[in-house]
Every structure is written in structure tokens, then in C-alpha cells.
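User: quick one, sequence for these C-alpha cells?
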């Protein structure tokens, strides 16, 4: 699942905060939060923009509040290009991977980074972000507390979630197939005369070129590279442990 660099680290490197370059954008964020989420506030602290406060969870039928969470949303230094970081600040959700929170910094795992195109794009507004993946995440947490099951299903943790995503997209659980596909996603350019990643001996242009082109538009090359390295590193470590 995705994990972005904190805005604090970017500010320490001397990069100008995004809200100074785009004052109209931060005012738009304030307006949307004020008009749709009166229990949330936009705050600038240490040159980082946060949205903080209480997020109510509502009954879809009656509109009545059935739960609430104390949250913090950190808007990254290159907002709105990158996904904001979300944290549960009330100490209610255990900081464990099994509850989709990174133990290292308490960041909520909203979705697999490779699948970001389904949940967040550069033009996604703060309102769409909160009403979409943020709200679904906390609604799912409430449902899990009551039933022990995830309302919207769940991706596996670490490389399992990545492999599940690509397995669904490619229609196969063949690890060799998936790794070859990821390897092609990491390339700056691909050529039609290359052997297709599916391994059937055909040229790429005569086989899965269309699927590869589609996924290259959806998946940033560096994200694919990080996923490929993560999978390969994990598999190598598992093999080492088996042979120890």
C-alpha cells in the first residue's frame, strides 16, 4: 500500500510550500472543508497544510451519525499531484498492518499505490478525496470492529496486495507472468518487436501490447519499479530463509 514522503521532509530540503505558490488552491480547500465538513479545520503548521478534526460516519439511510473518528490529513508538498497522508489521531485503531495502518508513522493504508488511478488522480479535490477513499476507509474500520469482516473486502498486506491487483488486471496468478509484466512497466520505452511478457513466444505488438500501453498510462514508472523491487526483495529473502 502507498506510503508518501512527508511534507515536513520536503520543507526541510528548502522547497517552497505549495500553498505559497497556489494561494487560490488553499482557499478552495478551506471553502470546501468549511461548507461540507464543519467538524474539520484547515491548519498550516510548520509550513505544512493539515485538515484536522472529527470525521462523522453516517447511516446511509437516515443520515444519522453512527460513528466518528479524530483524523488528520496532511496535504503533501506537491499537492494535489500526490495523495494526501491520512492518520487516525484518537488512538482507536491499533497501529498494525492487519488494520491497514503503517506501524512506523501511523499512516492509513487507503489503497495499493499501483491502484491509485482508481481512487485518486491529480485533479481529485479534497472533497472527493474525503468522500471517497477516506470515508470508505473509516466506514470499513467501523464495520470491522462490529463484525470482524471488511465491508469492501481488502487487499493483502505488502507484496500480497500488489500481486492481487496485478493478478486481477492480467487475469493470471502466474508469478513469472506478473514479474515480466512489471519489468516492462518500469521501462522508459517499450518496442513492439520485443517478446511478449506472457511468454508465449509472440512479439509484443502481436499479443499484449494494448494491455501494456493501457497500464503504462495508469501506473507511474517509479511506482512499478518500487513494486517490482519490493516483490523481488521479499521473494529473495524468503528463499534465503528456506535455505538457511
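Assistant:
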Amino acid at each position: 500500500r502507498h506510503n508518501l514522503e512527508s511534507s515536513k521532509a520536503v520543507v526541510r530540503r528548502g522547497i517552497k510550500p505549495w500553498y505559497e505558490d497556489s494561494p487560490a488552491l488553499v482557499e478552495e480547500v478551506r471553502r470546501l472543508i468549511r461548507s461540507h465538513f464543519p467538524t474539520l479545520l484547515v491548519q498550516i503548521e510548520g509550513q505544512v497544510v493539515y485538515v484536522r478534526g472529527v470525521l462523522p460516519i453516517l447511516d446511509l439511510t437516515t443520515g444519522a451519525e453512527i460513528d466518528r473518528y479524530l483524523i488528520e490529513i496532511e496535504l503533501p508538498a506537491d499537492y494535489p499531484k500526490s495523495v494526501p497522508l491520512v492518520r487516525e489521531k484518537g488512538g482507536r485503531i491499533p497501529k498494525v498492518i492487519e488494520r491497514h495502518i503503517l506501524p512506523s508513522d501511523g499512516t492509513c493504508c487507503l489503497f495499493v499505490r499501483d491502484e491509485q488511478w482508481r481512487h485518486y488522480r491529480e485533479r481529485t479535490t479534497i472533497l472527493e478525496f474525503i468522500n471517497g477513499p477516506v470515508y470508505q476507509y473509516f466506514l470499513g474500520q467501523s464495520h470491522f470492529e462490529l463484525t470482524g469482516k471488511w465491508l469492501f473486502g481488502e487487499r493483502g498486506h505488502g507484496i500480497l496486495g500488489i500481486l492481487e491487483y496485478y493478478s486481477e488486471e492480467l487475469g493470471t496468478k502466474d508469478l513469472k507472468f506478473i514479474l515480466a509484466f512489471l519489468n516492462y512497466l518500469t521501462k522508459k520505452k517499450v518496442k513492439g518487436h520485443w517478446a511478449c511478457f506472457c511468454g508465449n513466444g509472440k512479439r509484443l505488438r502481436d499479443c499484449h501490447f494494448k494491455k501494456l500501453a493501457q497500464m503504462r498510462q495508469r501506473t507511474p514508472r517509479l511506482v512499478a519499479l518500487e513494486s517490482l523491487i519490493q516483490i523481488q526483495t521479499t521473494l529473495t529473502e524468503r528463499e534465503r530463509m528456506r535455505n538457511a
